[in-house]
Amino acid sequence: MTIRVLLADDHPVVRSGLAGMLAVEPDIEVVGEAGDGEQAVSLATALRPALVLMDLRMPVLDGAAATARIVGAVPGVRVLVLTTYETDTDILRAVEAGATGYLLKDTPRDQLVAGVRAAARGESALSPSVARRLVEQVRGPAERLTAREQQVLAGVARGLSNAAVGRELFITEATVKTHLLRAFAKLGVDDRTRAVTVAIERGILPGA
Fold it and tell me: Which of 84, 116, 188, 203 has the smallest C-beta neighbourhood within 10 Å, fewest atoms?
């Protein structure tokens, strides 16, 4: 099955280079090129490609805003960001806008082509440095557990049941479970024991 790709970059030389690189792949077809974000939205809506290869810094409408509009307007489309920039703000804006992947322009050719195929399948395609930053961002909220989440986790660390924690904090058992689930998500764990262990390791709870 051919992957129909729309290129969105404000530099003609970059678009030409990408088009030439992808043209030799038997399963990839470049169906259009956009020089700004607004044009990218218009072409994506008209051409309905499987994938948009999107630069972030573009005139008229930036890449993150264009990504959000494309994802909202074209069912099933994937957007793979290809940019020079890898600041936390840029990465998070692109991901929040709905980008499936985020590659840097110095990505080797074979990895870029593999990323295009992966993103078209709906899989995340991330440059290693970007992946590290995203993991750090996801884990970051572990340092920002709410006071109530910390209280609930402290009760669990003392061996209390959800019901007992609820009685101690004057909240329902269901509320205790909700706080625990949120704490699990922030800590990147899926059970009570691991949550306590990780919280202690990170200094969120005092050690034994």
Answer: 203
CA proximity to 138, closest of 126, 155, 121: 126
What per-residue confidence (pLDDT) applies to 208?
A: 57
What gap in Å lies between CA 188 and CA 204, rounded to an integer? Answer: 14
Q: pTM score, two decimals?
A: 0.66
d(CA 83, CA 18): 12
Of 163, 161, 164, 149, which Cα lies nearest the Cα of 195?
Answer: 149
DSSP state of 143: G
Instruction: Report helix, strand or coil for 102.
Output: strand
Do 8 and 66 contact (CB within 8 A), yes or no? Answer: yes
Tokens representing 198? 């990780």
pLDDT of residue 54: 97
Count Cβ atoms below 10 Å from residue 106 Cβ, excluding itself: 8
Taking the CA of residue 132 as centre, how many other CA atoms within 13 Å lie in the half-sphere pointing to its CB?
Answer: 4
Average pLDDT per 10 consecutive residues for the chain, totaling 208 residues:
96 96 96 97 97 95 94 93 82 84 91 94 82 59 76 94 94 90 83 89 78
The per-residue DSSP string of 172-183 comes to: -HHHHHHHHHHH
At residue 136, the pLDDT reads: 58
